[in-house]
User: Fold this.
Amino acid sequence: MKLWDKGFNTDKKIDRFTVGNDRELDVILAKYDVLGSLAHAKMLHKIDVLTDKEITGIEAKLNQLLKDIEKGVFVIENTYEDVHSKIEFLLTEALGDTGKKIHTARSRNDQVLVDLHLYIKDEIVEIKHAIKNLFDILIAKADANKKVLLPGYTHLQIAMPSSFGLWFAAYAESLIDDVYLLNAAFKITDQNPLGSAAGYGNSFPIDRVMTTELLGFETLKYNVVAAQMSRGKTEKALAFGMSAVAGTLSKFAMDICLYMSQNFNFISFPDELTTGSSIMPHKKNPDVFELIRGKCNALQALPYELTLISNNLPSGYQRDLQLLKASLLPAIQTLKSCLEMLIFSIENVQVNTRILEDTKYDYLFTVEEVNKLVQDGVAFRDAYKIVGEQVQKGTFSPTKTVNHTHLGSIGNLCLKEIIAKMEEAL
Assistant:
């Protein structure tokens, strides 16, 4: 069944090529298509396109479809082009001519826009919830290990003292920036496009404010052409937010892979969270974190993939936009799975509390020794040379203590302030 059927058949090759994997993807959007249809039907009833009896029948059937979708028994067979045609067929099958009225004053163009907007809003909420769970674990780990020193590196060379408190809290606070971008994507998405039809409105006296309120949108996309132009822009906004999250997770996963290696031995995980080798019995591989790193690196390409699909399209709907779903929807699930695995794994991380007993980390404290000399009245450049000469001669012997008190330093992690920032962001 095709909503645009004019009484002739298209070649099956054309059908396969143009429909692609839309049916599989549309099952994910089915719930939102029903919700959009419910709101649209109620509005049609208000403007007297549907009678009291007709709206009662449509609401009953759509609510039954919602239950079927929740049970996982809703499918889109090959005989249907997409979720829109399947739902309209079921309405017509159950209600006769009443079901044929549901498409009055709308197009598949604004239908899919509504579906995507509602879906993306829900997914952003879920992603933010997962981020908050990871954030809470990182903050807890930072607090529990705030006094455990950790070598800091620049250029992969031993640099200055850090701490596990700083390391865990750094990624916690970085997630806040990612939430800001997700919030921006949510703001862009929280605009109702329903009523724009094929992108140019229609001659029915529809009530777009009513559908905006029924669907829980903050506002509506007033200009009908602008509403259609949001296709692609909305997906890209989410993709940039997801890319930011993925960037944070990828960097964190890289740190974990590095810190787990025998050369560093900063952290470890229980055996059940690592994998082994088919030939080397001693191996404990960080496969989970390598896959998180790889998946999240791939996710960072998503904004550019969507840009290249939609970048040179004119205003108005073009079929190229269908391709965005195939990239975006699986990517959302990938990001959520990476967050889930990090939440599960980091809860069980074990830190090495004796790292700095290794003499190769003595040079972490050269800056501390320079600062002590400066505090005793020696000019900084002279103090720098004094300690540098000790290093050159092999006579440098540090006191392995740090006394950093400024905001955000080893001795003043500002965890309460970081928590407050996240709460405000959420």
User: Anything to note?
Assistant: The first helix runs from residue 12 to 19. The chain has three domains: 12-103, 108-148+163-206+221-353, 359-425.
